[in-house]
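Give me the fold.
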Amino acid sequence: MKGKAVQTQFPSIIRRRMFYSTAAATLLVMFAVWSSWLLWQDTEEEHAYIEEVLYPSQRYLLSVSQLVERTNQATLFRILFDDEKYELEHNRLWKYELQPYIDSLRHKEQLWHSVDDRTLLQDVIISLQKLQIQQLTFIKKHKIDKAFESEREMYEQAISEIQQEANTPSLFDAPLATDSLTAAVPQQEDTLTGSLPEEVSPDWTEGGLFDAPLETGSLTGNNPLQQEFESKVAPVSDKVQAEIERLLLNFDGQMRLSRDLIARNRLLMLIEGFAVLIILFVLMLLGSRWAYMRLSSGLRRLHHFFGELAQTNVPESVPVSQDELGKLCVDGGQIRENMQIIRHFAEEVAQGHLEAELEGLPDGEVASSLKKMRQALIEVAQEERDRSWITEGLNLFAEILRHTDDVQAMYDELMRELVGYVGAQQAALFVLKAEEDEEETHLALTAFYAFDRKRLVKKEVGKGEGLVGQCWVEGNTIYLLKVPEQYVEISGGMGSEKPRSLLIVPLKARGQTLGVLELASFHPFGEKERRFIEELAGDIGSTLLSLKSAEQTRRLLEESRLMTEQMRLQEEELQNEIDRLAGEVRKLKYESKEYRSLLDAIREKAIVMEFDSAGNFIYVNDRFCEVTGFSKEEILGKSRMMYAPADADPGEFNLLWSQLSSGIYLEKELKRSKKDGSPFWMRAQLFPIHNDKGEFKKVLCIATDITGKVQSTQRMMRSQQELSAKQVAFERACISIETDKHFHILDINEYTCRLLGIEREQALHAHIDELILGRLDFEDLTRRLEQDEVVTGDVLMAAQDFQYKYVRLTAVAARNINQEIEHVFFIGVDLSADKHHEIDLEGKVEALEKKVYRLERNIEELKQL
């Protein structure tokens, strides 16, 4: 960075004071954060112990207590109802529900703080094991009793059968030895009794377990099985419940202590936070007051100084400070010097010294922007000089192009001035020569100039021939800095030399190329020269188009003059009669009131205009002003081109005027422009008027406004075009079938044939029922059509390869002049894609309903389980 560099050091008084205050506050905050962190950590540990240890352990113990009750119920029901499903439920509860809870309690036991709780948990587990053994023993004893009872019943049945056989006489009348059988009964009883397991007490066999029936009354307190269960199993279960209750009470006490500790820690953190905030507030208040007193005086001076700078003024002096504001004061002084440099630079630029330098200003964004501004001003000035040079040149050559009396002299002067103005050494003008045979149309060298000497060179260029022919065909500018060998040489008194640049520009007007301009120079053409030459080429093209139109007009006038001469010879015999009749007409025109009334009516209702021989307005009536919006003061004395539309052809106007000046009466529709630029149409009758000497004097035009009719015709044409487009779209996207009143096909469009895959010739004269799957009620359809109903319905139409299409058909009847149905039109839309999609959706819905039904059944089965 350029400019003055200030290295003055200033004492950091305010910074040191603020640093000490901030350090003290930081230490205080760190101490508060550390102590709060310790309290928070202790609180989180207690909270985590409650949530992750005590609460889960409490839930596990409650679940174990409930499951113990369920195992007791399963054991009792197994004995009372003799149903094995209760035994299975008993085993499942111990294996798959109680055991996981016991394992979870053992896992949580490692995290318990109280050793007594761990000891008590071991007692609970031992009691649970004893309870499980007692329940299993009770169930096993019941099973043994049931087996013994079953054997006893078999034994009694065998005794009864033997007794029956003993009472029945034998074939040999042999007496039955009943004593031996009777003696065998006690032995059998002893054998069964001795076969019981050792752990089963013998007194179980002597009780009433075998004699007691299993009825509803057995569930009461008088049931021996239930009394035995309450005497042997219930005490163990009660012991387990009591130990679990002791553990739950211990957990409740621990949770109360933990909650009290958490509340105390939170209160301490809150008190500590408020104390730290108060101390910090006091420190910040004292430090801010001292800093404010220290900075206020210096800031007031700086505020005044920078206020002057903000108003784009340069202060007379710079404030001085010996603390941290000193650097800001030095920077303000540097800004003041930069403002003085910028002000001096602006004054130099305002005086037109665009090359002024920014000496002493650092290379920053402002300096860069100012330099860019200076460069932009230089470029704008240069562009303004170029634009002025181009405008002066166009005005100069426009004056030359207006001298069309001697066209060749105008071309020569144009080439001479152009070579000198753009600094070229050679110029050539090629003009299009149109022939009746289009292939013979060519460019002719009309003017050629080099080294201030005219050179007449006869030369013709065809389409696409050389660079000039290529420029003619493509219609684009050709600029070469490397001229082809032997293309052209610029000769002088000392010899000849090849040019270094070549510029070939097409002469265009209204989209057509009317000639080519070729320039050669020893130096390259700049952007300014090329742009000037291209704009000048447009003016030359317009002049050539005007000359071409004038030539065509002159030729037409010559033809008209010859025709007039021929007609003059034929009119000499009738001239006397015409003169006599003309005298009578003139006399009647001025004397007849009826003629004047008719003339007034024409002037009131019709548009009446009169033009002089030069084509300028000399009279317009009020109707003309009403239609066009021009006032008489605006139009009188002006050229007839004043109300010509923007797209008017000057050649057409010139031809019309040449015919009128030749005495030809014209009647035609004309399009002209109103004052606001909108077009209007009129049917005009143009009467050429000559004086007594036969000289063309003026033209009388009587016209009627037909704008509404023309616009109506245009709207009708646009409506017909839109209707045709809609009909084409309908034919390409809809089914269309025309039948007679008996529904035989008379016409069918291509879309229907393509959709159904049939040939049009095959469908014609066939019955429409052959295209529709199913049977339609044609009698009902005919009845509804006779009542002028529009019948709409969905049908299936047969397609190729045994396919079908869903179609929505609409039937409409067309009647003849006798109001009888003559034709029936069927208009349809293909709904196959929508129908297939609808069928797929119905299938998916049906499958979903089946899944929902199966899911509901599964839910009901789960509820029953």
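The first helix runs from residue 13 to 81.
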